[in-house]
Amino acid sequence: MSAHAPVEIAASGDTIAIRVCTGSGCAMNGSLAVADRFENAAEAAGLGNRIRVVRTGCHGLCERGPVVVVGETGIFYPVATEAMADAIIEHIASTGDLIVEEYLFRSPETGEPVAAYSDVPFNAAQRRVVLRNCGVIDPEDIDDALARGAYEGLRRVLHDFEPDALIEEMKASGLRGRGGAGFSTGQKWRFTRDAPGETKYVICNADEGDPGAFMDRSVIEGDPHSVLEGMTVAAYAIGATSGYVYVRAEYPLAVRRLRKAIEQARERGFLGQNVLGSGFSFDVRIKEGAGAFVCGEETALMASIEGERGMPRVRPPFPATSGLWGKPTCINNVETLANVSWIAAHGAEEYAAMGTGDSRGTKVFALTGKVRYSGLVEVPMGMTVRDLVFGIGGGCAEGHTVKAVQIGGPSGGCLPEHLMDTTIEYGTLAAVGAIVGSGGMVVVDEKTCMVDFARYFLSFTQDESCGKCVPCRIGTKRMLELVTDITEGRGEEGDIEKLERLARDVQRASLCGLGQTAPNPVLTTIRYFRDEYEEHIHDRTCRAGHCVELSRYVIDPELCKGCAVCKKHCPVGAIWGKVKEVHDISQDRCIKCGQCQESCPFDAISRV
Amino acid sequence: MSETETQKVCCKEDQGLDTAELAAELAAILARHADDPGALIAVLQETQRLAGYLPREALREIARARRTPLSHVYGVATFYSQFHLRPRGDRVVRICHGTACHVRGAPEVTRVVTEELGIKIGETTDDMAFTLESVACVGCCGLAPVMLVDGVTYGQLDVSETRRIASRLAEEAAIARGEAAPSAEDAE
Description:
The structure holds two protein chains of two kinds. Chain A folds into five domains: 16-124, Glutaredoxin (3-Layer(aba) Sandwich); 142-352, Rossmann fold; 356-445, Ubiquitin-like (UB roll); 450-539, Up-down Bundle (de novo design (two linked rop proteins)), CATH 1.20.1440.230; 552-607, Alpha-Beta Plaits. Chain A has 23 helices and 21 strands. Chain B has two domains: 3-79; 91-176, Glutaredoxin (3-Layer(aba) Sandwich).
C-alpha cells in the first residue's frame, strides 16, 4: 500500500482493529498501559465504536516492543508509548488516515519508513503456521480464535477420519516432535494407540526450560486453542480420554490464558463429554511445574505430575506402553501440537509441501543475543542459518561481527560463521554438531568468549542435573571445574583432551537426554574454537576481553583527559597520573573490579 | 538445612505469622487435595503462597495429613527451585541469567547489584529487606539483560542504569530502617 492513501473511516463501516501485543515481553515493556490508552483515547475522540483494541499474543519483533499493529493492512508502530497512542488516535480522528509517519519503523539501510508490519525485513521471509494466530487474535476470546478457523481441524478429523487413518495422515505429514528429539509424531501416536490398556493419557509438554527460549510460552500466550485442539486430536488418535498440560510455574500469564481457554472450550463443546457430538470424550487439566529443568525429559515430567521428585528413569519401558500412573501415555510438545491442529485443518499434503527432505513444515525459533532484531520467528525448514540470522535478524548491530550462532540451548552446539550456510534440518544440523532442538538461537559477536560461553551452558546443566546417575552428576561437575579453570587462568596442557574424553563418557553413559547432551556446547566450541581454548591455557589471554582473570583494564591515552575521576573511584589506589595528564593503571595492584571503566566520563578505559 | 537456619525459620515464623490462621488455611488446602495421590507439589505450592516459604511445621503437617514420611515431603520440596525453606526478604530482586542476558551483560548487572545490596546471589539481607536470586530465563530475551524487582521488569540494562536502580533500592531500605533521610546524598 502507498504510505499516503488515507483510509476514510468516516465513510467505511468497518471497525479498525488496533492490535497491541500483550505477550510477556511487551507486557513487561509497558504494553498494557499502551492498550488502555488507545482505548481511552478512542473513546474520548468519539471513535469508541469504530476502534477495537485487541490485546494479542506475541507479534514476534520483541526487540522493538511494545508492538502495535493497526488496521487490516497492518500499520506497524514499534516501541509504542502512551503518547504515541494519543497522537495516533488523534490523527485517525482528524484525517481518517491510519499512518503517522514519524512513528513508523524505518529501514536501517535506507532510512525510509516501512508502513506495513509484513513488509518489515524481519517478517519478509517468515512463514507463520504455528504462530498463525499469534499477534492476531485476542487469546482470551474464543470467538476471535473461531473466526480464524480454530477447531475446524478437530471437526474435520472427528467427521472424516478413523483414528488409524488419522495416524497415517500424521505420518504422511512428516511432522517430527519439536521439543528437541525430533521423533516422528505419527509413529509416537501409533505406539501409544497399539499399547494394550483401557486408560491412556495425552500430555502436552510445556516445561520450556532452555534459557533463551520462549517459543512455547508465546504460543500458549498468543493462541492457546491451537494447543488444546492439537491435544484433542492426539487424544482421539490414540484413544485417550484425559490429558494434562505440564507448564512451567514461571509462566503465570500462559497458565492464566490456558485456564481461560480450557473453560471456554468446554463451554462450546470442544472439550468434555461427547466432543462436538461425536461420542468421543476428552478433558484437560493443568499441572504447574515447580522449577526443574530436567522435568522437560518425559519420564521426569511424568514423575513430577505424580507429585514426586522429577527424576528420569530408564527407558524402556517407553511412556507409550507404560507412562503416567503406569498407563500408555503420549507426550507431545506445545509447538508440535500447534502443528497438529494446523495439519488437522489443512491436511498432510499441504504441510509436507513445506520444508525439505526428512524435515517438513516450519520451525519456530527464539532469535536472541547480539542480533539487531531479537524476537520470535517461524521459518520453513530448509532455510539457511545465515538467511535467518542476517535476513530476518538483521545481523549484529553496527560495528560488530557475528562470531557464532548457538542453536539448541544447553543441549545444542555453536556454529561458527563459516558454517552459517548450513540449512535448518534435523540431519544437516546434527552433522555439524548442533541440533534443531526446541528452538533457541543465540547470536554472539566478537565480545563473547567461546570458552566462557561453553562454561555458561555447562554451569546451567550441572546445576540442573538431578543427581540420579553418576556420569551426569559427577561428570558435568568435573567438566565444569576444568572449563572454569581454563577461564580463570589455571588451565593446563592436556585439559582440552581431558575435557573431550570426559565429554564422550558423559554423553554415552548418562541416563537421560540432559546428561547425554550436556557436553555438546563444550564439544562444539572445542571443535570450532579450539584456538581460543589454547590461548586461554598457553597464553593466558582471552581475546574477547571477557574472562576477568585473563584480561586487564587499560586507559586509551587518546581519549583520557586526565580528569582523575577513575583515580578517585579506584578502591585499591591502582591508578596514578597528574590532573590534566594521561593516567595509567598499575596492573600489579588492579583487582579488576571495573569501577574505573564505569566511572570514566570519556569512555577512555576498556578491558582487553 | 543446618540447625541455626532452622532456628531462624522458627523465630521468623513466631514473629511474623499468625500460626493459628496458617494452620486453618493449610488444613483447607490439605482437604482440597486429600483424594489426589499426585497432589503433593500442588499442596506445597499453595502452602508456600500462604507464608512466602515452607515453614518446617507446615512440612510436618503435610506429611502427617498425607500419610507419607517427612523425608518424602522434604525430598520433593528441596528438589524444585520454586520452593523455599527459609523466609525471604520483603523484596525479591531476581537477575535473569538466560543465554541472551548472559551475552548481553548479566554478569555485570549481577556484580553491580551485589555491590549495592551487599548480598550475593541466593542470600537475604540481615534486616530481611532483600533477597537476591538468579533465574535461568524469564523469557523476554528481547529486553536482555533483565532484572525483576517484585515482578517489575527492568530491561536493556547497562552498568550505570543498574547502579541507579540498585542504589535507589538500597536507599529506600535504609529509609525504611530509619537510617537515612530521604534526600541523603552519597556520603563520599
